[in-house]
Amino acid sequence: MKPSFIHSTYYPHIDGLRALAVLPVLFYHMNAAFCSGGFAGVDIFFVISGYLITHNILKDLGKGTFHIANFYDRRIRRIIPAYTFLIVSVLIAAPFFYYTDMIRTIGDTALSSTFFASNFYFYFNLNYFTFDGEPNPFLNLWSLSVEEQFYIFLPIVLWLGFKFFKKGLLALLCVGAFVSFGVTAYALLNSMFVTSSFYLLPFRAWELLAGSLLAYTAPLSANQKVNIFTKSLALLTVVALFASYYTLTKYDAFPGLNALPFVLAGVILIKFGAHGPAGAFLTSRPIVFVGKISYSLYLWHWPIIIFWKYVCYGVLTPLDYALIFALSMLMAILSWRFVELPVRKSKTWTKKRSFILLATTTLVILCIFAVYRTTDSFKNYLHTQTRAVKYQRGIEHLPIDEREPVNGFIIEKTFMGDRSKPATVLLIGDSHAEVFPPAFDEILREKKLCAIYIRNYTKNLTGVDYLRGTQIGVKGQDTETLMRWIAAQPHIKTVILAARWAVLTKLTGYSIHEGGRASLRVQGGDLPTLDLFELGLTRTCKLLHAAGKDVILLTSLPELKYHLPIFKQRALIFETDIEIGMTKKDYIDRQQEALAVLEKIEKAGYAKTIPVHNE
């Protein structure tokens, strides 16, 4: 029997499933604590999109009415109005809030988004989980770029397959899905292509193809069989989906195997989610309504969150979260009602008007981008007071004096002090070590001494890998190679090790601009983080001490709550002044585990600790 709530090809439970995709994304973006795995809602969207688009293409092919121009006419009417409305709105608003560098970045991202290439832009410029600095208000558009790139190929493949090798088309889709999934899973299990796997179509195609395969092999029908098994399966899938949203975190390798539960849930709920308790939930009026506005809600929620957090310096109250949610819903409803529906539901709309709309909206965005470029992102027109803020890393004015190849990589050296003297001291570490060379250079010149700063980024943990998210930042083997090279240098008598030690014990940054999480790993073992930190640093000090070096451990520098140049420019724009540093108590609380390890190494006689934080 045909269910009463199904009319033509509209299935309300699919809108309900859209709600279960977009709301977790919204909650995650507001605060990861609200839904730790909410970002996986995008994967549900991929499955739904793959199913619906493939189903419509196959239906037209079966009737003999498929035409590529008609396909893109529907895509333009569905995607472009709300999409370009959002982009233009952000481009108009951004110059009033942001400083020049960020305005320039927003303009560049808008350009890439206009041509559905923003996933490539972010692949080259921004890790979704570990970004530092200001989040980009167009970041959420990466997924739409992936989809539209997929729909460059899918209609052509289906049309050719239907016409020339219909019997082999299913096998082709299966191979494509399995190859894409296999490559992604293998890459992430081996910490390879982490950013590529997240942003790029070849690593995401299997999720869209999962929906395509469902449409090809078992599409929805008015008379499909319903029994206690299918109802129970759908209910269990809804429960499992909610559980998955709260067990997955941004620190897990993703997509790959961790995306599989969400993709399978999407397939199962498209097929069986219209009936039973799951169907009652998915077809309830509030859930269906959220599903109807889900596209506009997905578009608008992220820029609203970003602008709101930007104005509030990232510190939000419960009222802020409530207002963000309300404003996101309001903008989604307005966009859906007055931007999406008039174009999608128009009975007088023509194919010609679709392509004129596409050309016009593209031209409008290009014109705004041209204004951005010709005014150098309004550099001399808006917020001119921020031009006084300069950002320079401490070692930028010091040259790389020497490069030496060692076991497959290049050691970069900067000499500090009197370069006519032999270097007897060596400094090495991460970005926090970069603070010291300018001062060391000046002091050593006065004392007519020379030292070397090794510019290769390292955490000084021999044999222990340092990861940001799932991506290897420093290989423990590379650190060991560096330390053995240092140990073999006869003229080096003293080795100074500096690093941001607390990141290696707390695994998180102190600044609110740091979105990522660190982790430590050792081959062939599974030790607690603090043990791995102690193991790696002790190995380093022991190795150097055994080579006759005097090892000095510098305690960490105090950290700032905000990225200083970003904060200063924002404070000038909004004429605000808030605390950005940390108290000594905060410093000790953050550093206490690291300080205990440094003290332990000193007591063992392998190194001497020099505190840089004492008043």
Q: What is the count of helical runs?
A: 22
Tally the beta strands. Answer: 10
What coarse outline follows from CA principal-axis ratios?
Answer: globular
Unreliable spans are 1-8
What is the quaternary state of this protein?
Answer: single chain
| Mean pLDDT value | 88
Distance between the termini: 80 Å
| Rg for CA atoms | 28 Å
Helix content: 55-70%
Q: What order do the strands of the largest sheet run in, or round the barrel if closed?
A: 1-2-4-3-7-9-10
Secondary structure class reads alpha/beta
Strand content: 5-15%
Biggest β-sheet: count, sense, barrel? 7 strands, mixed
Task: Summarize the helices and strands and which ones pair or pack.
Blueprint: H1 12-30, H2 41-63, H3 68-97, H4 100-114, H5 118-125, H6 142-164, H7 166-189, H8 194-199, H9 201-217, H10 228-247, H11 256-272, H12 276-282, H13 285-292, H14 294-311, H15 318-344, H16 351-374, E1 402-406, E2 409-417, E3 423-429, H17 437-447, E4 450-454, E5 465-468, E6 471-474, H18 476-487, E7 494-498, H19 501-506, E8 518-521, H20 529-546, E9 550-554, H21 564-574, H22 584-603, E10 608-610
Parallel strand pairs: 3-4, 3-7, 7-9, 9-10
Antiparallel strand pairs: 1-2, 2-4, 5-6, 5-8
What would you say this structure looks like, in words?
The chain is α/β, with parallel strands linked by helices and 615 residues long. Helix content is 59%, strand content 8%. The protein has 22 helices and ten strands. The chain has helices at 12-30, 41-63, 68-97, 100-114, 118-125, 142-164, 166-189, 194-199, 201-217, 228-247, 256-272, 276-282, 285-292, 294-311, 318-344, 351-374, 437-447, 476-487, 501-506, 529-546, 564-574, 584-603, and strands at residues 402-406, 409-417, 423-429, 450-454, 465-468, 471-474, 494-498, 518-521, 550-554, 608-610. The chain has a seven-stranded mixed sheet. Strands 6-5-8 form a three-stranded antiparallel sheet. Strand 3, helix 17 (437-447) and strand 4 form a beta-alpha-beta unit. Helix 1 (12-30) crosses helix 13 (285-292), helix 4 crosses helix 5 (118-125) and helix 7 packs antiparallel against helix 9 (201-217). The longest helix has 30 residues, at 68-97. It is globular and about 85 Å long. Mean pLDDT is 88; it is low at 1-8.
